[in-house]
């Protein structure tokens, strides 16, 4: 089994990871379901306990696997399975959470080894509910947060992304592909 | 007996030991992704004899459960997992973190041995063979990174095992002629004048303001930078016309509470950023901002928020390129093969939002018009590392690009 053709979606609880994968996957996504009693910090009806899985069929018998991590913070175990090889990391941050800077710090550091080798793109969700922090606030936060990181793309795209809107997710993933190679699909 | 039954339906039942629901869910998902449903994790309380067990020894219950399971089912293979395998010499053990690449070979190894003799430590991760199948490619996956962070298209994303002959042979050379870079035909414009100049002033000063028609004092825009809001009765067509007027005939003054638009007609709300970005691209209209020199490198110090700004052709590509490392407009056109007018509009828009950083070049370089800056000035030139953008059109990355672009 080849595990290299994958994009990992991560971010805190409720940031829109499952929505984003559903928005672009060719299959109805597979999601790990938890018994409600297992959940300690479930703030909403559905939460991903272990991972989400979607597929993009890209012809010639090949697929790109889309994996979503759970939003909770006790999951090193799953991440290790997820973060071997791959095309890049999509970090979704939720603008209604109390401390998005802390979330950004947490997730970029949790994936610090991974993002030395692959690009990261950042989508800020729920800006329709909470317009602040702004995108440039996030760019400022990132400058501080990435101080001790060796990111492959130290200036990643930071876009407003509504996880439910395919067009937004599509642009974020396109930005990821261009971050791998700006020459991709060039009309040369 | 049951082993044989299960094997007939093609599945192997796996008993989880010492795992909470979340860890079990991960294994369940890993098994599903492994394909063909060869392994199936038993649900809690499911009363079917398993063919193999997986135990997590890092919890006290896990160790107890694993030992009890082994006493009760000495004939059933057991794969243990732990962050420190050396603590458990009596188990066939896989070191965490668990990876797909090592999990399945480890299961196969343990199954092949059928039973594990107590007292024989087997640190599976140390075995050279099945744990790291030669074709997994993980060791050589990442090509060495260059200092600027640019890397060539990852050769590994081209699925080698399924490559069709067509994939192996390069596609015919592209028919389109390369984009011409003709410095003599560049027209410059001054971004500090006209509507764009006024808007940038408002953005900079962060004071609520109105922009009026100088002829009759009518309010055309009501702008609140703190709220990031711009309100106007004008249509896109009218705004574009204003952007392209030689004499703009606009005035700006601080907003007053009595300011209001004529009551007829509808008003449109945008963010101030959207308005500035769009006005910059329309004002540039294929011309290069006077603040940007064709041979001097610029870099994006922040990406524009492209999901909420008027789409400009090739803006994602140009943003990715200019966020990576500094490049002059001349070099950018040469490498990305974008139309100069597209690049100039994008640069004007990015500049208007303060997203560009100018990289100073020693006088020797800036005084030689027509020459791209020497690569040594700004570190390795992107040209060196991305000699052929057409390369990336091949393989999985190119197909993925086409797929996403078509969504
Ligand atoms: N208003 C608003 N709602 C959003 C946005 N993005 C996602 N949602 C909603 O937010 C909720 C959570 O989204 P999910 O996709 O389940 O989030 P998740 O990241 O998978 O969450 P966990 O699995 O719990 O970690 C859903 O009800 C979505 O419809 C957004 O940009 N704005
Ligand atoms: Mg989810």
Query: Overall pLDDT of chain A, averaged?
Result: 84
Helix content of chain B: 25-40%
Strand percentage of chain A lies at 15-25%
Number of helices of chain B: 14
Counted up, domains of chain A total: 1
Terminal CA distance of chain B: 50 Å
Measured as a percent range, the helix fraction of chain A is 25-40%
Structural class of chain A: alpha/beta
User: Span from first to last CA of chain A?
Assistant: 34 Å
Q: Just give the CATH class of chain A.
A: Alpha Beta
Major β-sheet annotation of chain A: 7 strands, mixed
How many DSSP E strands of chain A?
7
* Average pLDDT over all residues of chain B: 77
| Shape call of chain B | elongated
Give me the strand/helix succession of chain B.
HEHEEHEEHEHEHEEEHEEHEEHHHEHHH
Walkthrough of the structure:
The complex is a heterodimer of chains A (188) and B (407). Chain A has 188 residues and is of the alpha/beta class. Chain A has one domain (4-182): 3-Layer(aba) Sandwich (Rossmann fold). Chain A is built from 6 helices and 7 strands. The model of chain A is unreliable at 35-43 (pLDDT under 50). Chain B is of the alpha/beta class and 407 residues long. In chain B, the strands form 4 sheets. Chain B has a 6-stranded parallel beta sheet with strand order 2-1-3-4-5-6. In chain B, strands 11-8-9-10-12 form a 5-stranded antiparallel beta sheet. Chain B has a two-stranded parallel ribbon with strand order 7-13. The model of chain B is unreliable at 1-5, 115-121, 125-174 and 364-393 (pLDDT under 50). The interface between A and B is large, with 76 and 79 residues.
């Amino acid at each position: 089994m080849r595990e290299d053709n994958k994009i990992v979606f991560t971010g805190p609880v409720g940031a829109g990871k499952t929505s984003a994968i559903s928005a672009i996957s060719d299959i109805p996504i597979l999601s790990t379901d938890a018994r409600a009693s297992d959940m300690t910090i479930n703030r909403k009806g559905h939460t991903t306990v272990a991972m989400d899985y979607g597929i993009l069929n890209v012809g010639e018998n090949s697929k790109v696997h889309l994996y979503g991590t759970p939003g909770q913070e006790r999951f090193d175990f799953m991440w290790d399975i997820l973060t071997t090889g791959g095309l890049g990391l999509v970090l979704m941050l939720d603008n209604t959470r109390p401390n998005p800077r802390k979330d950004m710090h947490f997730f970029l550091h949790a994936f610090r080894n991974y993002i030395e080798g692959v690009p990261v793109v950042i989508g800020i969700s729920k800006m329709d509910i909470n317009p602040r922090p702004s995108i440039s606030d996030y760019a400022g936060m990132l400058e501080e947060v990435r101080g001790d990181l060796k990111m492959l793309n130290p200036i990643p795209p930071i876009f407003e992304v509504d996880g439910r809107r395919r067009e937004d997710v599509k642009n974020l993933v396109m930005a990821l592909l261009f971050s791998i190679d700006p020459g991709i699909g060039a009309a040369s | 007996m049951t082993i044989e039954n299960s094997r007939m339906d093609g599945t192997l039942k796996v008993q989880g030991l010492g795992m909470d629901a979340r860890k079990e869910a991960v294994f369940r998902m890993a098994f599903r992704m492994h394909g063909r449903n060869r392994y199936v994790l038993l649900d809690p309380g499911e009363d079917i004899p398993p063919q193999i067990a997986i135990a997590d020894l890092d919890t006290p219950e896990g160790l107890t459960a694993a030992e009890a399971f082994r006493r009760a089912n000495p004939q059933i293979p057991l794969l243990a997992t732990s962050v420190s395998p050396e603590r458990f010499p009596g188990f066939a053990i896989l070191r965490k973190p668990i990876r797909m690449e090592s999990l399945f070979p480890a299961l196969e190894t343990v199954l092949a041995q059928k039973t594990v003799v107590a007292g024989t430590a087997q640190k599976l991760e140390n075995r050279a063979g099945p744990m790291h199948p030669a074709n997994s490619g993980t060791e050589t996956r990442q090509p060495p990174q260059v200092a600027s962070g640019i890397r060539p298209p990852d050769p590994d994303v081209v699925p080698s095992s399924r490559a069709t002959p067509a994939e192996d042979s390069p596609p015919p050379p592209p028919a389109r002629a390369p984009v011409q870079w003709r410095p003599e035909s560049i027209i410059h414009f001054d971004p500090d004048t006209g509507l764009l100049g006024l808007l940038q002033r408002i953005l900079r000063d962060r004071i609520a303001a109105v922009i009026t028609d100088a002829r009759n004092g009518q309010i055309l825009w009501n702008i609140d930078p703190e709220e990031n809001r711009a309100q106007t009765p004008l249509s896109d067509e009218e705004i574009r016309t204003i952007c392209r007027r030689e004499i703009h005939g606009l005035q700006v003054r601080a907003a007053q509470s009595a300011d209001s638009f004529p009551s007829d007609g509808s008003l449109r709300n945008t963010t101030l950023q959207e308005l500035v970005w769009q006005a910059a691209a329309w004002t540039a209209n294929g011309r290069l901002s006077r603040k940007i020199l064709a041979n001097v490198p610029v870099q994006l110090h922040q990406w524009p928020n492209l999901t909420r700004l008027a789409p400009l052709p090739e803006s994602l590509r140009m943003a990715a390129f200019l966020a990576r490392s500094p490049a002059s407009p001349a070099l950018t056109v040469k490498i990305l093969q974008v139309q100069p007018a597209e690049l100039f509009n994008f640069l004007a828009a990015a500049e208007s939002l303060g997203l560009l950083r100018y990289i100073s070049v020693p006088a020797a370089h800036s005084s030689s018009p027509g020459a791209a800056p020497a690569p040594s000035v700004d570190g390795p030139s992107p040209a060196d590392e991305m000699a052929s953008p057409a390369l990336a059109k091949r393989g999985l990355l190119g197909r993925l690009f086409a797929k996403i672009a078509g969504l």
